[in-house]
Every structure is written in structure tokens, then in C-alpha cells.
Amino acid sequence: MASSTSYSSPPCAACKFLRRKCLPGCIFAPYFPPEEPQKFANVHKIFGASNVSKLLNEILPHQREDAVNSLAYEAEARLKDPVYGCVGAISVLQRQVLHLQKELDATNADLMRYTGSEASYLNQMSAQFGRMGREGGSFNLNSGYPGTYSSRWNNDSNSPENGGDGIM
Ligand SMILES: [Zn+2]
Q1: I want to staple 78 with a disulfide (CB 3.0 to 4.6 A). Which of 14, 85, 161, 168 is the partner?
Q2: How far, in Å, is the centroid of ligand 1 from the Cα of 74?
Q3: Residue 92: partners with Cβ closer than 8 Å, 6 or more residues away
Q4: How far away, in angstroms, is 81 Cα from ligand 1 center?
């Protein structure tokens, strides 16, 4: 497995991709290991290497790993779904949350019907969950996107909108 051409550590994925020498202190090296070449390729394609290096230099070192992970996620999502990018995944998840919220409310209502004595407790719980749900999302994507939007993200979620799951 070892490379016979060099005894020093291999260049980071960024420098290898850009065909340049990976010098000590390379801004990309800690976040783009040579074992993950696709990570840099995606980020470079979507954001551009120089923009990424500028961004990394502008933020504190302890924030860089999170920033790179975020860029890598966004870039991969944008390549998969050129129209909506990660917003596609977010809106699918938001709709799932709304759907599950309705299911939870319906189940709580059923429970209340069956256990009248504990009604006040369930009321409290339901109010709490309702509040969490409403405050959870600071922006509502559902208003601006078509309800029937379907992308590759939907293939993973395995939750057909009209799948006849019987929940009213
Ligand atoms: Zn490098």
C-alpha cells in the first residue's frame, strides 16, 4: 500500500487535486485527508478552492472542522439535487416532522378518549409537544415550495405522500 515515490506524508486531498505541493501548515490538510478525495472534489466543484481557503482563514481554528463538514454536506447535496440542494432534504424532513406531529396529536387524542382519568396529564404533554414543534423551525420552507416536490431525497425517506397509510 505504501507509496514508493515519497517518504514524507502524502499530500492532502486538496493539494493532490490541485496538483500542488502540500506545504506544512496547509489550510486544507487537517480537513481534507488523502483518503477522502471526493470530499474536496465536491467542495471545490460547488464553492471553489480559493473561496474555501478564504473562508477557513476568516474563521477561528476550532470552528474550521464544523465549517468544512457543513460545506461538504451542502456540496454533496447540491450535486445530488442541483435545484434545491440541501434545502430539498430539509423540506422533506420538515414535512415528515409535520406529518409525525399530526400522527402524535391524533394518537394523543385517542389516548385521551380511552383514558379519561389521565386526560389532564396528556393535555399537558400534547401542549408541550405542540409548542416544541412550532418553535422548532425558525423558517418555514413549506410555504414556498410545491407540496408535490419530489427529488432523490424522497427515495431515501421511504414515505410516499399518497401511499395510503390510512392516517387522516
Ligand atoms: Zn495540502
Answers
A1: 85
A2: 22
A3: 151, 153, 154, 157
A4: 29
Gap between the Cα atoms of 158 and 100, Å rounded: 14
Report pLDDT for 152: 54
- Output the nine-digit C-alpha cell for 22: 502540500
* CA of residue 78 to ligand 1 center, whole Å: 24
Q: How far is the CA of 8 from the centre of ligand 1 (A)?
A: 13
Distance CA 93, CA 105 (A): 18
pTM of the model: 0.60
Q: 40 CA to middle of ligand 1, Å?
A: 11
Domain boundaries, given as residue ranges, for the chain: 13-80, 86-157
Q: Provide the H-helix boundaries in the chain.
A: 13-18, 37-47, 49-58, 61-80, 86-114, 119-136, 152-157
Q: How far is the CA of 128 from the centre of ligand 1 (A)?
A: 49
pLDDT along the chain (168 residues), means of 10: 55 96 96 97 98 97 97 97 95 97 96 75 62 49 45 49 45
Place of cell 465536491: 42
